[in-house]
Fold each of these.
Amino acid sequence: NRILVLHGPNLNLLGTREPEVYGATTLADIDARLAALAQANGAQLSTFQSNHEGGLVDRIQAARTDGTDFIVINPAAYTHTSVAIRDALAAVAMPFIEVHVSNVHKREAFRRHSYFSDLAVGVVAGLGPDGYEAAVRYALAH
Ligand code: DQA
């Protein structure tokens, strides 16, 4: 069981970025917690963050041949804009869960549309860092 966790733009600033919206937990904290969870369950977990659309596309394409079974992705702002990342996930034809730290449905109207949700196994929003953990637990069980 090999899980790939992808974080989109500005998520490298978690912990300091709009803490009233995104909380005080850093991305390093989240990644460490997920790695420990996977390890405790005998699974492999890799994480990757990029502020660049093409970097995320390249990493998703690489997942086709690197043994990845399941993707957990927070596309961040690209959620609302990126046909390219959507197409990459469709191309690798791998199950994925879409995660958002904040509840995108109680924010600006433009955050309500996602290019990913109709392809995702499921969507988690508004649970803070716990949302990643819920997604990884699902991936471990399936
Ligand atoms: C986000 C929500 C997006 O609308 C926003 O652009 C982000 C983070 C979240 O995790 O809540 O950067 O994906």
Amino acid sequence: MEKHVLALQLSHLLGEEFSREWVYSLIEIPKQEKFGDLAFPCFQLAKSFRQSPAKIAAQLAPRLEHDLFASAQPAGGYINIFLNQPVLTEQTLKQILTEGTNYGSHQFGADQNVVLDMSAPNIAKPFSMGHLRSTVIGNALANLAEKCGYETMKINYIGDYGTQFGKLLAAYQKWGDDEQIRSNPIPELTKIYVRFHEEAEQDPSLIEEGRHWFKKLEGNDAEAVKHWKWFKDASLEEFNKIYDLLGVTFDLTRGEAYYNDKMDGTVYQLKENGLLTDSEGAKVVRLDDEGLPPCLIKKSNGTTIYATRDLTAAIDRYNSYQFNEALYVVGHEQTLHFQQIKHVLAKLNLPWAQDVKHISFGMMLQNGSKMSTRKGKTILLKEVLAEAIDQAKTNIEDKNPALINKEEVAKQVGVGAVIFHDLKHDRRNDVEFSLKDMLTFEGDTAPYLQYANARAQSLLEKAKYVQEDAEVSLHDPNAWTVVKQLRLFPEMVMRAYTDYDPSKIARYLLDLAKAFNKYYAGTKILQEEQLHARLTLVYGFSVVLKEGLRLLGIHTPEKM
Ligand code: ARG
């Protein structure tokens, strides 16, 4: 709001060629409070005005006037703007009181829908840290999209097809133990799969057996299908336990295999459009003009592959939902695959191809290298979550043994810690897996945020604050940093969504909580004078913090 006012005034003063948008994009928020609340750098104006930035700042500053500005001061090549604290504080508190959890919402996504492809673990394999990333990033993006007015459709595209299932079926024939699989499906299936790979190194005939079983599966052989279905159901049951813990739901869970009998249409369409070429017996779509390797559609032995299924699924999704955006939250090792998918869709003259976006993320590394199931060294998410919850429980016993709903709070804190640890990083970066970092409850963590809220809640409870007592006129310079943070929330929501970057919210919440904790430490909040206004600020803080955490998929206990 104040940024828009400033941009408008400056662009008026500067003349037509300096648009409001351009000015807006240059406005900074100074790191140090002594430089004001907003700053406008004049360096880029020097050339047009043939004057030093300092001179330009000195000329412009006195001409900036508005109710929202307390003063505008030139300093070096900058104009530093100090805002009218009482007016803006009042506005902010009023707005949060009236809008409640709707504060920070937008309407730019109204009447549009976003389809998210997220989580997508592979059956018969442990739920990996990479799939955790896809799940929590996708979930946060869906929440953010909804906050911006979009409708969302969350799809879990389970990896339930491919040659590896031939290998698994072959391994099952050899070493499968029904009893074990029933009681402990994923570890048991992983074990025989790993063994298959190990033994195949000595005995190449195994690979042939794997192929044979995949052929059977493709040919709908009753036995192959029966076992494959069993492995799938057992895996999904395990995955659902994790989704329950994470509090993530899907609008549609649909495996890759669903598209097996629907790919002919895609292949036909590609052919009709003259896009299919032969390459050593295989069918491919050449992407030379895009500078990409060809997209493989059909192998020389006639089997279709991952890309063909993804193309078919994308077309099916568009036909079903007419999405405005389709976001694929998948690790960056699949970047080439999604570039190829997008280009092939574009070559089919499907105008919506441009709305297909790969939201890539970095890998979870272990000692600097990728975790791999084949070698059996994947860290089990289930164990990480269990340990986080355990640790949260220990902390509660330590700090607040009288707490009534310990189990529930421990779950919210432990799971929150794991989710936040992921989301606070820029998604594009690789993250070194560290159980220790994940389970630290101090510093830049979810429990730190949750504690700040519990502190706020306990103040409100002590003072028996009810919203009817709210007062919005607060004259307290110490409160200003908190108010300023509260004012940033709507913009942060918008930027987090438009950049597909939940870490913007995560880092914002840390700044907000730090400002609040500083205020809490330096000000006696429960004092007679301006009590209700101060409590309203505390209440506003709690509303925004909780809503921000909700967007990230994290619960906030009232007490901890
Ligand atoms: N199951 C795949 C994997 O674990 C990810 C699938 C991503 N989604 C997609 N539409 N391709 O690598």
